[in-house]
Records
---
Amino acid sequence: MTNPNTAPLAQDFVTAAQVPDPQRYFFHDPDLTRLDDGTLIIAAPQWGRRDHRNLGRQLRLLRSDDGGASWEDLPTLPYEEGMVFVLDGQLYLFGQKEFHRDILIATSPDRGQTWSDPVRVIEGPIWNISTAMLQRRDYTYWAMDWDLPDLTHGGKVMVRIDRRRSLLDPAAWELSNIVEPPPLPDSLTRQLFPPENPLNFRWPNNFVWLEPNTVEVGGQIRVFTRCVIDQYATANLAAALDYDPDTNQLRFTQFAGWPGAQCKFFIISDPQSRTYWMLSNLVTNSQDLLGWGGRMEQSGYHGAAGNERRWLFLHYSIDCLNWFPAGCVARWPDHANRSFMYPSAVTDGDDLVILSRTSRDSGDQHDADLCTIHRVPNFRALALDLHRGGLAYARVRPALLKHSSAT
């Protein structure tokens, strides 16, 4: 019997896009969406690498009509950041001409070939990438990062979109209060990476939260966000926030154990199985207790040991808080400076189609040179039935339980 934790579920990938030169360019935060007719669309920001920033930034778009087996390039767009999403059967583009500045929305009538003129629907230091949105009947909820004066990604804000209006109408977009980061308890960090440590990545603070996912659990709207603590040394910890739509208020609730939350994770809500699925990067040596740091840095590895991104795993949950392992999606077992990371995913019938921002030939696990597609067939069969045996099951089958106790 194959072990999905050691034999990857989707190691054989399709390269959807690659940069012209991996030493000069990289993909920043690509995104995947699926149209109602099965068409797959990728939006992939392509930037010049640190020593080639003069090469500029553009948004590359790609389309597949065969489930991700082959891809065609669509016209590029002049955005530094962008992602595509479908709402009420319509394809939309979330774009930013300037990194972390304003939200522009455009729509496409022809599956991404052409786009309407963009409309600025929110002004301010706001940002997000491909993370989970919540669709309710009248509103869409999507938590985002809001930069504070002294901290990029510092604030969190809930964006509420009125589906009864056109998304191109700024009046359809509303913001909640802005939540500042909570104090980091001393017990959650060993303070291994002060600012003068040469292995620091780029985080100016000991605690940075970013890239929030928005879900609904038992009728409650919840937000789970990545946490970078002590330059990744404290791994596998997320921050949870709760949102009240009646008051339009967002609030920090707690820190929560979360596999791979030191890097960007992505949540898929699957009503068919009443299960949440989550993609994230597991890490092997976050505090460099094994003494790998110096050799990793010499190999081109970027940052401290906990910034490892070579193990992409799939997990599942029924409460979107406690996660069971479904298996390894893809891996680079012998290359710490390679990665499968920044995932997004869509369900396609019984399959899960995953987009990875992948570093193979750039010599740096952060600066990805590929966008790769991984298909996990019959993914729901990877999960135990976690609903059976609980109180919810007792409410559904009270007569059976009464009979069982009598005998």
---
Amino acid sequence: MAAGEQIRKFRRMHHLSQKALAEKMDVNEKKISRWENGMGKIKIYDAIKLADYFKISLDELVGRKKL
């Protein structure tokens, strides 16, 4: 599963709109949309903020499977 799909999944699990998540992450709502649709690269510090907010690992955020 791609990182964007994971972001969408966790956002929905937390019952957040893209706008609400953008406000919590202090980014533009369009950035959330681009991440979720695979049109924008997520910077590491944004990924860390997302993972911390969702209380998940970076591996989970990007959909990395354990070996």
---
Amino acid sequence: MELFFVLAGFLMASYSLVANDAIQTLGTFLSSNKERPWWMLWLFACSILTVVFIVGWLANNGDISYGRLEHIPFPERFTWIYLVPPIVLTFLTQLGIPVSTTFLILTVFAPQALNSMLIKSLLGYAIAFVVSIILYKFVTKNLEGHFLETKNKEISRYWIVVQWLSTAFLWSQWLIQDMANIFAYLPRELSLSWLIFSLIVMAALQAIVFYTSGGEIRKIVTSKTNTQDMRSATIIDFLYGCILVFFIQLSTIPMSTTWVFIGLLAGRELAMTLNYEVRPLKETGKIIVGDSLKALIGLIVSVILAFGLPLIV
């Protein structure tokens, strides 16, 4: 029965992670390449995933989480309570709410780690917000203005190559940071058979999400100014990836990449509004607050599940 809970938890967590967090990461890539066949984008993403999985497995003695589960022990007894977080996450994903899988899933495994994960995630939001404002307000102001003026014109092939490279960079860093959220359900040192099984599951689930063009969560990206322009998407992806690299090097404590992503988009949207008046400042404020509140929902639900489920048991 425990094996059933382990497999069910891993499968549901994998789907919810791909459908929610992964689409936040690949949303700009999907939006700016919507004219290309979905399977081409899927093969590209799967090739990066395969490399990250195998390198992590070989370099860390079977630990694909890259050490991010050091403080999240594997449960001595696997029960039904570990299935609740991914079920809730799947439900919230269908509503288009960009919740943090880190808080929602890992806090059930280790409630005592919530404080450290929360502090790191809040720091991630703040840094992403500030860096994004500075970059888009002062550094890329003229460049983004050019993108807006020429968004209906043909884009140079150079940008296609650069965007796919920036996506590969971001996708790999995100995988290193967030794989702990699903591999919490599996033994910390995976056998070769578990590795192959994990690759097949993740590839199959990605195919579903890519085929449906990202579902509701992708709207978080497409609702922002000019994010469907390949050139703008490239800058977003590269900046997001650089911030994740910083936090990967900072510590192995898991963090919410959702909060980093929302902070980055919030800072960018504010800077774009100030620079080009793409929408009223008040409307931009509502968008920023709305996205933040959606992320806060995930945190509140996580705390309730982490401390409430054990009491029920």
